Amino acid sequence: MSGNVDEEEANVTHTGPKGVINDWRRFKLESMDQESLPPQKRELLRQMSSPHRPKDDGRGSLNRKMSVQEYELIKEDDEKCMKKYRKQCMQEMHERLSFGPKFEGVYELESGEAFLEVIEKEHRLTVVVVHIYKEGIKGCDALNSCLDCLATEYTSVKFCRIDAGVTGAGERFTDDVLPTMLVYKAGELLGNFLATNQHFNEEFFATDVEAFLNGYGLLPEKDLVVGGEEEEAAVDVEAVE
């Protein structure tokens, strides 16, 4: 019976400052290669990972301050482990707060039917950005590169591209209106930008396209950054050590 209780307690995610401390300590213990650690270090980490004080522990409270020797023993691994812990916390938070599907990269649409399908059948909360291009037309290659970059930062947005020649509406998308960028949500056209490159300088970048779309309120909030400095504002675990 007690074994089951211990197992259940090990799987609980605690809340509050003390809970965060205990979750961090447990994560640190579980993420390290126990077999390769010196016995002294392994035992210290085991003690730190336990949220409960043993009733018969004569060594004092586990909440006591660490000695200099203990601190020196574990600090070398702290930074790497802390980054992994933050990443896990941010990913879990992102999953809880996210709505709608996630996408990777820019999708190449092979036909007019595929074009219509992505507009009409995509999730109602998903913003769909479609770049209509043609090889050799000024600005098309640059816009493709920009959307490749934005697709990594806005994974809730479905970025697509389609050659004007296979849209089934080639007479509408002549060379003088390319590159064209169309923005849809729930089947509704929100943005129709012909000759998009005319809105930018001769040389333009992903940040320019991002600012342009944001100027029309067409992009959602940028994805939470995992592994970067932004994590520190959300999960400041160091402060509770």
The biggest sheet amounts to: 5 strands, mixed
Radius of gyration: 26 Å
- Low-confidence segments, given as residue ranges, are 2-12, 56-62, 225-241
Structural class: alpha/beta
Helix content: 40-55%
Helix and strand pattern = HHHHEHEHEEEHH
Q: Report strand order across the widest sheet.
A: 1-3-2-4-5
Summarize it:
By secondary structure, the protein is α/β, with parallel strands linked by helices. The protein is 43% helix and 12% strand. Pfam families: Phosducin (PF02114).
Descriptive account of the structure:
Residues 2-12, 56-62 and 225-241 have low confidence and may be disordered. The longest helix has 30 residues, at 68-97. The chain contains eight helices and five strands, in the order H-H-H-H-E-H-E-H-E-E-E-H-H. The chain has helices at 2-10, 16-31, 39-49, 68-97, 112-121, 140-153, 206-215, 231-234, and strands at 106-109, 127-133, 158-163, 180-185, 188-193. The chain is α/β, with parallel strands linked by helices and 241 residues long. It has a five-stranded mixed beta sheet, sandwiched between helices.
